[in-house]
Write a structure and sequence with these properties.
The chain is of the alpha+beta class and 165 residues long. It contains five helices and seven strands.
């Protein structure tokens, strides 16, 4: 029996630091103004990393870190748009397409509410879905732990894939 849908879950986090250790804060493929940014090998886009891992997980394929290892100089400073586009291409080649994505970004500051529409629009283009098929929720750490103390960005993402008809 071949299932007609698959669900994947993705997770990513990055420590935040001031420049030059931390790069620009990039989420969902967009640069967000903030004094701190992720410490990462690529652009450190935790949102796109989590969504990419969710797609790859739904497909039963190797994860982001295996396909795009952080010890490979090709990916130093790379845009995470590339990683997600590659995962979507792999899905299409295997006969799957994205139905929807639901992601939760845990970040003390900046608040994401004013960026949600732009994030949904940009991610919908990367995923080849309408913007209402991309949900992004921003949550603070309420002053608790590394997220709440502004030291980390953390993202959980779920993706639904369905067979291409």
């Amino acid at each position: 029996m071949n299932p007609s849908i698959r669900v994947g879950h993705g997770y990513d986090c990055h420590r935040l630091a001031l420049p030059p250790e931390g790069g620009p804060l990039v989420l969902g493929g967009l640069r967000i103004e903030h004094d701190m940014g992720p410490v990462a090998h690529s652009d450190g886009d935790a949102l796109l990393h989590a969504v990419t891992d969710a797609v790859l997980g739904a497909l039963g394929l190797d994860d982001l870190g295996t396909q795009f290892p952080d010890n490979d100089p090709r990916w130093h400073g790379a845009s995470s748009d590339h990683f997600l586009k590659e995962a979507i291409l792999q899905a299409q080649n295997l006969g799957w397409t994205v139905g929807n994505v639901d992601a939760t970004v845990l970040l003390e500051r900046p608040r994401l509410i004013k960026h949600r529409s732009a994030l949904r629009e940009h991610m919908s283009k990367l995923l080849h879905v309408p913007p209402d098929s991309v949900n992004i929720k921003g949550k603070s750490g309420e002053g608790l732990g590394p997220v709440g103390q502004g030291q980390m960005v953390e993202v959980h993402a779920t993706v639904l894939l369905h067979r291409i008809s």
